Amino acid sequence: MQILALTLDLDDTLWPVLPALERADQAVDAWLQQHHPDVARAWPIAAMRKLRAQVAAERLDLAHDFTTQRQLTLQQAFAACNIDLAPIDVLWEVYFAARNSVGLYPDSLPALQRITARWPLASLTNGNADLQRIGIHTHFAHHICARDSGVAKPDPRIFLAAADRLGVAPGHILHVGDDPEMDMVGARDAGLRTAWINRDGQSWPTVLGSPPDLDLRDMTALADWLEAQTPT
């Protein structure tokens, strides 16, 4: 396959996201305990997560917008404590800073440096990752996120939006990600080629149809494969 550009998932592809999400929830809880102890007592972390799940279930129109889901969750938590003016901006900064304090997998940055020296790269995410805060924005030509696009992976439209931004036909773009359905099926349905970063060596779920074009253990394997296709 001739690859002219790549799209790349972020969470759990370049870094493990769960530790960052845990830290973010803990940071919000700590701020509430200091500044709004009544809200903290009424809405400990587990209860706040349950409320967010409820908001997501009720607001299917926001399935692509995790930011607004979380902000509505905070508003409802404060309203339940009879506080009309919730400090959403302050709390969001607390959350967002911790959420973007991620630890890259050891292979991620060296592979990014190798790949982006030769191929244009666009990030493609449903989440709230901020490439500038993380410090890797210079490796990306474009950043496509579900909130801005109005649709989330695996909807083919977000992949086609990335292809349009890159100015490359879908069949010449390799989408790289960790999630079989969100990344591999979504990209496949949009006509992109697919590379599964399968760090745990899992078997492909056959219920999802044909397997991805590439099944790779990490980002180093991706960089090796790309370079082998187009030797200098």
Note down, in words, how this protein is organized.
It contains eleven helices and six strands. With 232 residues, it is of the alpha/beta class. The chain has two domains: 5-16 and 103-229, HAD superfamily/HAD-like (Rossmann fold); 18-99, Four Helix Bundle (Hemerythrin (Met), subunit A) (Up-down Bundle). The chain has a six-stranded parallel beta sheet with strand order 3-2-1-4-5-6, sandwiched between helices. Helix 10 (180-189) links the parallel strand 4 (173-177) and strand 5. The longest helix has 19 residues, at 17-35. The mean pLDDT is 95.
Explain the layout of strands and helices.
Blueprint: E1 5-8, H1 17-35, H2 37-42, H3 45-58, H4 66-80, H5 88-99, H6 108-116, E2 121-125, H7 131-134, E3 142-145, H8 146-149, H9 156-166, E4 173-177, H10 180-189, E5 193-197, E6 214-216, H11 219-229
Parallel strand pairs: 1-2, 1-4, 2-3, 4-5, 5-6
Helix pairs in contact: 1-5, 3-4, 6-11
Mean pLDDT: 95
The CATH class of the largest domain is: Alpha Beta
CATH topology of the largest domain: Rossmann fold
How far the N terminus sits from the C terminus, by CA atoms, comes to: 17 Å
Helix/strand order, N-terminal first: EHHHHHHEHEHHEHEEH
Task: Please indicate the percent range of residues in DSSP E strands (runs of 2 or more).
Answer: 5-15%
Corresponding CATH superfamily of the largest domain:
HAD superfamily/HAD-like
Assembly state (oligomeric): single chain
Q: Going across the major beta sheet, what is the strand order?
A: 3-2-1-4-5-6
Estimate the global geometry from the Cα principal axes: elongated
Number of helices: 11
* Cα-atom radius of gyration: 19 Å
Protein structure class: alpha/beta
Largest sheet: 6 strands, parallel
Number of domains: 2
